[in-house]
């Protein structure tokens, strides 16, 4: 279980993350949804150890993690971030990109674990290809496979759907759910797209200007009546569904 308490960060004098507290259970997907500039990437960088916050605490399975220590190696062992641009090694195959995460293990274990990850992430058939020869969705799944190779307790995904077409998006959404459930990882998934969050998350946190406005189930977010901001956000997310259904001659009416 991942727990953030009162995390705050400023760039120069400008607040980017303001007093955020959240909990994510093992095997749970929490989507953080907010407009561009709301502080989502900053928050993930704090949780992954890439940015030292001004204040706040982070704990995993009730153990406080030192995020203030000036480490030479920034990576926190039990927490893995998949950055928006994947950062795969272009000259290595898909197999080798995953294998590189396991260099300190025996050859036998590496082979076994990489093969298991290739199957889990649905990329076994492309294991000998280079990143440039595969789709965006396959690259994203390779980056996820690499990140979970050492069985982290926490996985952080920054805009995993942003460069994908709709078929790849749909496939990746179901793969993410499968991976998180099977590996029992606590997952924070950041997106600017509420529709993706509705389709993949157990709970959704709405973020605005560095603050969390509401954390609840997709259904409760969908039915929110008090916050005008959230109501408008929900309405803009379902507009594409409306447009889609109109294309089939069915006009759907949502009371939002
Ligand atoms: P998001 O991922 O939601 O788009 P970010 O976390 O990237 O948001 O940014 C939050 C705010 O912090 C924005 O106003 C952004 O301009 C600012 N910001 C992000 N990174 C830096 C930085 N390295 N230096 C100064 N300001 C930054
Ligand atoms: Mg971002």
From TrEMBL:
Database matches in Pfam families: ABC_tran (PF00005)
Alphabetical list of SUPFAM superfamilies matching this protein: P-loop containing nucleoside triphosphate hydrolases
Domain ABC transporter, first and last residues per copy: 2-234
Stored InterPro entries: AAA+_ATPase, ABC_SmlMolc_Importer, ABC_transporter-like_ATP-bd, P-loop_NTPase
Record SMART domains: AAA (SM00382)
GO molecular function annotation: ATP binding; ATP hydrolysis activity
Alphabetically ordered keywords of this record: ATP-binding, Cell inner membrane, Cell membrane, Membrane, Nucleotide-binding, Translocase, Transport
Protein's UniProt keywords contain Transmembrane: no
PANTHER family for this protein: PUTRESCINE TRANSPORT ATP-BINDING PROTEIN POTG, SPERMIDINE/PUTRESCINE IMPORT ATP-BINDING PROTEIN POTA
Protein name: Iron(III) transport system ATP-binding protein
Species this chain originates from: Arcicella aurantiaca
Highest classification ranks of the organism: Bacteria, Pseudomonadati, Bacteroidota, Cytophagia, Cytophagales
């Amino acid at each position: 279980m991942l727990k953030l308490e009162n995390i705050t960060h400023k760039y120069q004098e400008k607040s980017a993350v303001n007093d955020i507290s959240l909990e994510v259970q093992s095997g749970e997907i929490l989507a953080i949804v907010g407009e561009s500039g709301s502080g989502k990437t900053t928050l993930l960088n704090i949780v992954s150890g890439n940015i030292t916050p001004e204040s706040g605490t982070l704990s995993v399975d009730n153990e406080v993690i030192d995020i203030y220590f000036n480490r030479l190696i920034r990576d926190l062992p039990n927490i893995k971030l998949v950055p928006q641009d994947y950062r795969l090694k272009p000259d290595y195959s898909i197999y080798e990109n995953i294998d590189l995460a396991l260099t300190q293990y025996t050859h036998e274990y590496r082979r076994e674990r990489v093969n298991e990850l290739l199957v889990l992430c649905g990329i076994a058939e492309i294991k000998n290809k280079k990143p440039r020869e595969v789709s965006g969705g396959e690259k994203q799944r390779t980056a996820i496979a690499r990140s979970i190779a050492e069985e982290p307790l926490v996985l952080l995904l920054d805009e995993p759907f942003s460069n994908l077409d709709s078929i790849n998006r749909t496939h990746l959404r179901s793969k993410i759910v499968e991976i998180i459930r099977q590996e029992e990882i606590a997952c924070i998934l950041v997106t600017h797209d509420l529709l993706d969050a509705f389709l993949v998350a157990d709970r959704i946190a709405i973020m605005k200007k560095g603050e969390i406005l509401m954390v609840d189930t997709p259904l409760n977010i969908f039915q929110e009546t008090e916050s005008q901001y959230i109501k408008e956000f929900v309405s803009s997310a379902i507009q594409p569904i409306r447009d889609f259904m109109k294309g089939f001659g069915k006009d759907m009416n949502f009371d939002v």
